[in-house]
Amino acid sequence: MDFCDFKGVEPTEKQLKLLQGPKTIESLLAADFLGHQDYINDWIMDWTQCNDYPLALLPLCVQETIITDKKMRKHYHRYVRAAVVSYDIEWLRLHYILAYERVWNYVKFRHIPMNMFQLLWDVQEVPTELVTFVAAARRIDLWTVFVSHYDPTDCLLTVIKQQWPDGVLGCINEGADLHAKDFMRDAMLMEPAIVRCILLANPPATEEAFSEFLIWKRMHRIRDVPLIEEFFWINGFKENE
Questions:
Q1: Average pLDDT of 36-56?
Q2: Do 23 and 135 sit in the same domain of this protein?
Q3: What angle do CA 90, 93, 96 make, to 5 degrees?
Q4: Is 92 in the same domain as 205?
Q5: Domain match, 196 and 165 both
Q6: Among 41, 98, 207, 213, whose Cα sits 20 to 30 Å from the Cα of 141?
Q7: Residue 105, pLDDT above cutoff 60
Q8: Domain range enclosing 144
Q9: What's the burial of 22, exposed, middle or buried (CB within 10 Å: 0-12/13-18/19+)?
């Protein structure tokens, strides 16, 4: 094998001039070509504080540096958090190039603008562990995006317990399977509006649910007894006289 003595890439006069001038895309490309990582780091530090470049123009070295350099990653995440908390969607449009897995922990679902929610979602979906927080916001625009991505059947119990009729309807409209679980056992203790939403999907009536209904009825826990009784009567269940 021939021995190859690699001495590195010699910068051209144009590249040196770029590196000595303002921080631009051209100077970043020159630094990337020459392997000047310190310059790339400084460029990223400067970039997080300005809105000069569309995402499509950023070379791969920006993402690679944020991924591989712990200091730069912490710096980037700090600016992402600040933009989310202050609803700075313009900054996010021009800088949110890598998913920050904890970003949703800083989102106030009740107040976040829909266009910012969608921008963050396009990079990384809200994790299922935060389903209760999304439902608690009582925003059907966010809930529809969430439920259409995840399993509406899994989401249904959350909105039943939170007594959010629109959220229940959202799950049903997205195809929640009411035969997968005995949802009436949970719904019949909720406000009548929740029960009516469940009844629209023609849920099954079970012996277990009927037995619980009789117990809760005697304890005066059922808010609309005739509504629940009618459901069970239609399905062949009737309290013995």
A1: 94
A2: no
A3: 120
A4: no
A5: yes
A6: 98
A7: yes
A8: 108-241
A9: exposed
Give the number of domains in the chain: 2
Q: How far apart are alpha carbons 205 and 90 in whole angstroms?
A: 52
CA-based torsion, 161, 174, 98, 139: positive or negative: negative
DSSP secondary structure of 24-85: -HHHHHHHHHHT-HHHHHHHHHHHTT---S-GGG--HHHHHHHHH-HHHHHHHHHHHHHHHH
Whether residue 168 is predicted with pLDDT greater than 60 in this model: the reply is: yes
How far is CA 172 from each of CA 81, 128, 192, 209, rounded to the nearest angstrom?
Answer: 34, 18, 17, 20
Tell whether 146 and 230 lie within a shared domain. yes
d(CA 200, CA 21): 67
Predicted pLDDT at 205: 94
Query: In this structure, are residues 32 and 61 in contact, taking their beta carbons and an 8 Å threshold?
Result: yes
Residue 142 maps to a domain: yes
For residue 3, tell me if it sits in a domain. no
The position carrying tokens 């800088």 is 95
| pLDDT value for 8 | 59
- Whether residues 91 and 170 share a domain: the answer is no
Residue 83: inside a domain: yes
What is the CB neighbour count within 10 angstroms for residue 37?
A: 15
Instruction: Verify that 210 and 234 share a domain, yes or no.
Output: yes
Amino acid at 93: R
Residue 26's identity, in one-letter code, is: E
How many Å apart are CA 217 and CA 27, to the nearest integer?
75
CA distances from 65 to 58, 60, 101, 185, 231 (A): 12, 9, 17, 53, 61
My answer on whether 236 and 126 are in the same domain is yes
